[in-house]
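Replying to the earlier thread about multi-chain prediction with a worked example.

Input:
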Amino acid sequence: MDINVARNFAAALAIGLGAIGPGIGMGILGSKAMEAIGRNPEATGQIQTNMILGFAFTEAIAIYALVVALIIKFV
Amino acid sequence: MLKRLLTVRNLIILVAIVALFVISGLLGLGAYKPVVELAAPVVFHIGPFSVTNAIFCAWLAMLLLIIVSWLATRRMPKNLEAASNTDLVPKGIQNVMETIIEVVYDLVKDIAGPKVSKFFPIVMTIFLFVLVSNWFDVLPGFGTIGKLEHPTEEMATNGYIAKGAILTSQPAASPQEGYVMVSLFRPPSTDLNFTLGLAIISVGLSWYFGIRAQGASFFKQFLDVSAFKKGPMGVVQNFAGLLEFVGQFTRIISFSFRLFGNIFAGEVLLAVMAFLIPYIASLPFYGLEVFVGFIQAVVFMMLTLVFFVTATMGHGSEEHQ
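Result:
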């Protein structure tokens, strides 16, 4: 297999498979946050702040996968 | 409802957009396939010091922040006790900056409690610097104004034909004829050096605050020799402490890559979208970039703050007694 073909495959697989986990994780996080807001609408502000914090951590994993894909493709 | 939309102003805007398409088609202008460089390229030299475009834009961001803060504070009375109440009312840019500072101060006070006056200056500085660097990405001119150069070996492209100072989208036949644009402006957060520096400062300062608040017992969270006496739980605790120590270094990597990956990917996305359908396809992505830039600045600030607070609060409070 030509090196450029392999590179394209590798970049696509890296970001494609790497986004599955964080996607599921952020979905779970969001749904639990919605549940919590539904139970206790007064605490919405605090729940939102912590939810954004949680989003940042899980999204970072997807960003690592994206950086690896970019490095494979462009460096 | 259609009648309400067809005002004269809207028709003029529509005609202007169509004219833009037609004129750029006639002149042969086009968006070329973007050349993505992970490392920021050098654009000019000051003596022996080579300046990359990300460093240049970091200086621009600092200049902008300094000018805004000078403008916001020049009407403040010097002697706050002696000023009358009407003198103290803020106007204009001072009002805007005071609103921003008040919102962030409340947020920091929520998380930090009594230590807010120690943490607030550095956290606010990090927030403003990262926010300005991220929002530079959506300004016009970033990624489009630059120097034309012949493509180097590693770019794997022949470049495009340049008409005078404007690069068209017709591919050239050889690297000697074609040109590639090296952008003069690039948001500083797309350079891994910038984000790595900020991450090292954040984590280093959390160690500094922790040692200043707790003294030498700051290191007890990593290696607790006295816990060995308590039996097998001591071994587990020390192992957890070792993992915690390694975790401090992975924090540096995680901070820097989170910011770098988000903003760099956003820049590449904008360039590729502009290449696919010019003028139109990048519009929703500009909105996304504004949002993502703001969120990443907030997240960097809040994570830094949370690490400061846990370092000074001490892990002794979570020990099983």
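Chain A touches chain B at residues 49, 52-53, 56, 59-60, 63-64, 66-67, 70-71, 73-75 (CB under 8 Å).

Feel free to reuse this layout for your own posts.
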